[in-house]
Write the structure tokens for this entry.
Amino acid sequence: MKFLFDFFPLILFFAVYKYGTGNEAAAVALAETYLGGLVSGGKIIASQAPIMLATVVGIIATVLQVGYLLIRRRKVDTMLWVSFFVIVVFGGATIYFHDETFIKWKPTMLYWIFAAALFVSQVFLKNNLMRKVMHEALPLPEAIWPRVGFQWMAFLFFLGALNLVMAFMVFKNDTNAWVNFKVFGMTAIFFLFSVGQAMMLVKHVPQEEA
């Protein structure tokens, strides 16, 4: 259930985008009806409608995530607050300027903000955030955690840079291909890194004596 909750905005973003690309006339009609008053100039062309509809649904889904947790009086993780702020700012800019450039920057900014937070916390505040997140599942020796932190910093920075390369170079004129890469490619890379790192780190977990 937590997996579905965490990926709720991404799943809806992808579903709405694919609906929009497959039903162009309906997408334009919906975008002009509900978003026409929010965009600069008030005019939305057909090629812009799918990404704009997907973006506004992604924003709404993230707002619902935060609202649900607040109503249930549960803790809203810092990562979710950051994601909320980034998608509102960059998604809002995408809608207002009807320019997909902003939403394409959103994953990069999110990854780089997390990487910067890890760096500042570990280097300057002497507080390893990855240890706080992973220690319960992987009770590693203290000497290992700085390495883990730096590995995640490097990986998140790499993901952010990779997104820019794919969005503005490899798939520069193919938003559909970028969306597929964002949803499936980057998710797979993140998953494989997490699993691979866990497999390498588990050997450092102290073994309980019989």
The chain has two domains: 1-99, 101-205. The chain has a mean pLDDT of 92. The chain has nine helices and no strands.
